[in-house]
Amino acid sequence: MYYIKYPLFYLLSLLPWRVMYFISDAVYGLVFYVIGYRKEVVMKNLLIAFPEKTDEERLRIAKDFYYGLIDTFIETIKLLSVSEKELSKRFSSNLELIDAFYDTGVNLYLLAGHFFSWEFINHGVSHFGKYPFVGVYMPITNKAFDKMMCNLRQRYGTILLPAGDFRSKFNEYTGRYALGLAADQNPGNPNNAHWVPFFNRLTPFVPGPEKGARLSNSPVIFANFYKVKRGYYHIQFEVITTTPREFENGQLTKLFAACVERTIRKNPPNYLWSHRRWKWEFDEEKYGHLVVK
Question: Which residue in 63, 66, 78, 135 has the fewest CB atoms around it within 10 Å?
């Protein structure tokens, strides 16, 4: 099936950008107004995050979010055939900040929230940065699509590690790396989490990214990426710490959560609101001992 699906998507990717965005607008109308994909989850999340906003303001954020979500999928198809020259025009960054660490011999932890567009950023960082870029991915059930996405993400040298086997695969890796993690994942088990303030409520965050950075004493960098305009993306790196072992357990996660919240408040539609970020509710009796002070 791969050799049937891939050529079809590649041919679609050859369409001009303006035609791709015409398709994106049409799909947006279908997804938002007809299918209503996860609309209830999106609106509930926005109410939790922005109770001070009016219904109309939250609806505007939701609509802009869906535009960004559909654009991300359409642009992912476009990336199948985009040239290096075209990519260099559409990707900007302060990569010099993380490149400066390369000659020091340290590895890096690049922590991000679920922002748009992760596929564009993967291409840019892996192609234009000095560090070998290591990314964690969730395999797709459909084998043909999984192969197509893996090939796309590895186009410029990204080293992919499956989420389910991350620990063993990562321990086997011996080269230099900048490890990219969407560190705002919902933990599968709230009893194995750091509970930190996030939009005025205690929220569980996975402890793995902080744990790994502290074990290796690797600098922790916050990665904020966003759309400059349609089809053009920027990633802004910000050093959280170069000495993670100096922090108490959970403190780095708390700092990271604050970075994500600050970033979302500046650009609310740029976050993956269909992600069930507040799946778990805080219970003092169950989780009080896990709250980061």
Answer: 63
Residue 258 located in a structural domain: yes
* Residue 292 placed within a domain: no
Classify 231 in phi/psi space as left (phi over 0), alpha (psi -120 to 50) or beta. left
Print the domain residue range for 16.
Answer: 2-277
Is the pLDDT confidence value at 234 over 80?
yes
3-state secondary structure of 288: helix
In a domain, 179, yes or no: yes
Neighbours of 110 (CB within 10 A): 26
What are 116-145's pLDDT values in tens digits?
999 989 999 999 999 999 998 888 889 988
Q: How far apart are CA 190 and CA 289, in angstroms?
A: 12
CA atoms within a 13 Å half-sphere pointing along the CA-CB vector of 39: 14
Contact present, 205 and 260 (Cβ < 8 Å): no
The total domain count for the chain is 1
Considering the domain boundaries, does residue 157 fall inside one? yes
Q: What is the C-alpha to C-alpha distance for residues 131 and 102, in angstroms, rounded to an integer?
A: 7
